[in-house]
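Quick one: structure for this chain?
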Amino acid sequence: MDWDDPLRHLAPISEHPAKKSTLSSELSAISDQELASLKVNVKLDWFGQTSPRHNRAACILGSFFQFLEDEGRKVLAREILAWMHVEDNLFELANHLVAAILLPFKASSGKAPPPVSRPSVFADEDHEIEQAVGFIEPSQRDQTKLKRQSLRRDGYQCIYTGVFDRRSVKEEKVTLPQEARFGHTECAHIIPFALGNFNDKDALETENKSLIWWTLHRYFPTLRSKIDAASINQLGNVVTLFSEAHNIFGEFELTFRPQENAPNSYETITVPGYAVESKSGSSIIQLEQHDASIPMPDPEYFKVHHIISQILEVSGLGCEIDELLKAAEEAVEKLDPNGSSDLGLLLSQKMLIHTWV
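Got it. Here's what it folds into:
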């Protein structure tokens, strides 16, 4: 059966306010990074006191500003400082960040996404996006080969739990150690596969995916030369996970934070009460390369996944998106007990009347 793209129902993505305004050089004149951060936080606090809507936008922007890395934070800081007295721009910026980053990532965990409104950008970026639409290509899905290579590299086991792949044990590709467990494992994408999968004959879908990647590269510049729609299926972007671990990873309830100066070492962060322990028995795990010819997972991708998890939690949008997805699923069950209704279209209808800011 063909893969059901959870992002195929994306409506045009919400507007980026940069088209209306040029950015000031205010931040570039501030040499002290801590002073720049203080200035942004103080202004967001002031902005958020005006009304509940202002507070909501300040919370979203503040969450991104808190967790983005330095280069992405600098871009966002320049935007916030330039548009502090143009409130519509800040509302649009907050909506765009939700629509182009948080929503696609969160909805890509096997659920259909809500629609969002179309963005526009200022002249230079508008030209960049037009070029991106012309050159963007969907990834070619070859999960069988990718999983086979990922399994060899990861020692035929989940990188988090250490659970061995059931089929590999059955086919005697690996000998099950004494007292070890086996089960169903999956090839998990760190940057969601859905971001690279689209119908290139559909102009709206193509534009949406190019806008998502433009926004990701804008605020996560370390991704620019590493990954895009066409290269989503790279070995640096996949890991072997036990099916249950894959589920919570897709829900951003399991993340891997790279440890400084310790290659392939990660601090794992899970939701409280998760029943399955890490293979090391602690929060720190070491990834092992069992086949030296197969590239290891890229820590930058894990870092982006972890940052987005933090933003979803602190902004409260993770729970909000989950509630909307759940409401759509319940509505489908009421309409058609056999489950033949189109969840994506129903969710789109619900999201059309939902506003983030």
